[in-house]
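Forwarding the complex inputs:
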Amino acid sequence: MLSGGYMGRLLSVDLSEQRVEELPLPSEEILRAYYGGAGLGVRLLYDDPGPHVDPLGPENVLLFLTGPLTGTRVPLSGRHAVCARSPLTGVWGESDIGGTFGTALKRAGYDGVIVRGAAEKPVYLWITEDGAEIRDAGHLWGRDYYETDELLRAETHPKAVTHGIGQAGERLCRIAAVMSDGRDGRAAGRTGLGAVMGSKRLKALVAYGTRQIPVADPEALAASIKARGTGIRGKMENYTLFGSAGGVEANARLADMPAHNWTVGDWTAHAPKISGQRMAETILIGRYYCGACIVGCGRRVRVVDSPWGNVDGGGPEYEAMAGLGSMVGVDDLYAVARANELCNRYGIDVISCGGVMGFAIEAFEKGLLTAADTGGLELRWSDPNVLLTLVELIGRREGIGALLGEGVKRAAERIGGVAAEFALEVKGLELPYHDPRALSSLAVSYATMPRGACHRGNTHGLERYGVPELGYPEPLPRHATTGKGVAVARMQDYQGLFNALKLCQFMTPAIAISDIVRWLNAVTGWDVTLPELLTAGERMNNLKRMYNVRLGLSRKDDALPARVLMEAFTEGGSAGYLPDFVAMLNEYYDYRGWTRDGIPTGGRLRALGLDREIADLPPAYREREPLPRAVPWESGAAAAS
Amino acid sequence: MAVTLLLREPAASRVGASALTLPVPTEGTLLALLAELAARYPRLGSLDDLLAKYEPFINDVHVEPGDVVRAPVRDGDTVLLLSAVSGG
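Prediction (whole assembly, two chains):
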């Protein structure tokens, strides 16, 4: 009997059979090994259905999973995960999202939703304390997400929270997002999971409930939150004031904010025009909070009478400023804000959208795309009209947007020639907007994150601040090589826990790992130790790796685009530097206990309790033992240097 | 023997200026300069706050967090402080 943190039930929905049933959560042993969110998600999907499914077929299983901390008073814990095999990459797919849907789902009495099959006609799922109901969504199909949210709350409950797709997901655009919280515009953007919803004709999930999330030791939880709470708010003040876009100008000066499809190293003259500070001076009208948040990085903006169109809702975060701004050379805040709203309405991942648009403009510049391909649109840098037109076309999957909505890897393959040379992706996922030439850890992190090029390993955090309990009391030099492979592995495992417990990673520099241990134990009643917690993080990452290994992935797939490895900037804050990728990757594999082929050894899997998965390794790796290593949280050893 | 400080938000509002001049500290380091800044303008918070919330640049060259202690500041230098937001 679980004493806290979990509601104890999952909703299982078969859209082909139009059937809804309640399932008990997996055993406490499984929960303590994977917690929830994307951690529990990979445990469930690894076995059922496994990776060998058509991502857009009814056999793909789509998960919406909260964590044990979701909905509690733990700061910045109102999050959940969406998981499935990705239609964009074909490998492990997960996307982490804030907002309040996770909290609403738990208050309705469920820790998660498992969606199987595909409906014949559009439907949505209405989830309350009385159960769940599959409802017709014919009147919503074809509408954007903002409209959908308003209609659904009007016909269900005014305080219900919606989690759904716009036209991009309906039309199986492979860079489609799953949106949440209406105009507050939170997104599970990455890996195209909005298209999985579209393939199932599932327009939205809507949740409302009033149940309390059980907490094993409320007094201990209150005391630990009180001890840390004010410090979090103070340390994260810049997020409150300016949102994540508050770092735009500094990032641009480090050449960390990619511009013109990763070709321009000095965009510092433009960056202040689309910074969070500029937004605060102009279009900001308020801020919004995810569940249990005390920071409020969400930007509520309003633009009227702009030549680019009105905006009323969520404003651009850092990744949107880069993807819809610097990547295409646009420094008009009003245009970027409008493009961001269009992405929210259509349900498009702003990161992948920026990636394919920057790629398309460069392809046009090189003559690989012409006006005949674009319906007459001249694709040029720094043109807000190009930006807004491309977003519209991608969202509607029309014209050149149909090609670009396939993602940059497929688009480059279809264009052919040298197009792949400037299609920046890893495993088919467009690079997010921090540059490995500015922060070297990102080279190996982008290459090895389970879902493809992903910044949620937050390894670049270790190049800005220390994490003492991982063995790094001070930050690492941003252009160093030695030690970065180890640091990346440790940080990926630590940060993966945020996506299992469901905590906001922005909080990382404001807390200690031991805070998480205290919160988790107070909520669940467990006696988890710090080494146990970090081992769980490593276990989850290894299981995601094994999901991909079963699909045939290995070192050959841990590859970075040549541009960030071979084309040094000649100007800006990282001029002349290229990351030593091979050295860092080898160090990373050695530390992980994987072979230099990028395959986990049987010995490492065994040490992590993944004995059953050893049989999924190619035979030559099953008896291999990992290299010896020391970790500071077990032995007190110093961090590898 | 002075250093020019260029400030962006939120530092500029708290100091009441987007540029100011401070004498080169006796220790001749960026850390000492920031300590002096924090002492003169308490609304900026403590020295630790400054180190956590701002990215410093000397003459347009970024100073890594681990180098702040020994990074030299000299007469005529320009130090830029930008708000640090590591995530996103």
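Chain B touches chain A at residues 8-10, 45, 49, 52-53, 55, 57, 60-62, 64-66, 82-88 (CB under 8 Å).
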